[in-house]
Amino acid sequence: MRDPASELRKLRRICRRAELHEDGGQPLVHLPELRVQHAGAVETVDGLLCPRQHSGYVSRLFLSKPFPNRGQNWTTHNILGAPWHAMSWNGVDPGLGWDEILGAHLRPLQ
């Protein structure tokens, strides 16, 4: 199992205000003002990275808004008292570093 503090430090190189939370005993990382490459531009959204199993996926990235022209089958989830959007993107190895998990989840949005 990876050290959450070490993984959080790596994520802060990507999103300097990343904060570690817990949901159901699992780590959850809030990524405020995450810069996302999307369709040739950069958009800023909030993110929520679940580097472990969530809702039938081995890892999951939730965003404060959907990108319906990228990714597939967007769904809305209520997490930590707020609505979050996630595309159907499975198979991102939870054994990777959290920064690598984030990168893999962001790839379909480019």
pLDDT < 50 runs, ≥5 residues? none
Radius of gyration: 13 Å
H and E order: HEEEEEEH
> What structural class do helix, strand and pairing data support?
alpha+beta
Strand order, biggest sheet? 1-2-3-4
What is the molecular shape? globular
> Largest sheet, described in full?
4 strands, antiparallel
Distance between the termini: 30 Å
Count helical runs: 2
- How much strand content do the residues show? 35-45%
On the 0 to 100 scale, the average pLDDT is 91
Task: Indicate the percent of residues in helices.
Answer: 10-25%
Number of strands: 6
Concise structural overview:
This protein has 110 residues and is an alpha+beta fold.
Structural topology:
Elements: H1 4-12, E1 19-23, E2 26-38, E3 41-50, E4 60-63, E5 75-79, E6 82-86, H2 98-106
Antiparallel strand pairs: 1-2, 2-3, 3-4, 5-6
Give a verbal description of the structure.
This protein has helices at residues 4-12, 98-106, and strands at residues 19-23, 26-38, 41-50, 60-63, 75-79, 82-86. The chain has 110 residues and is of the alpha+beta class. The strands form two sheets. A four-stranded antiparallel sheet has the order 1-2-3-4. The protein has a two-stranded antiparallel sheet with strand order 5-6. It is globular and about 35 Å long.
Keywords:
alpha+beta, 110 residues
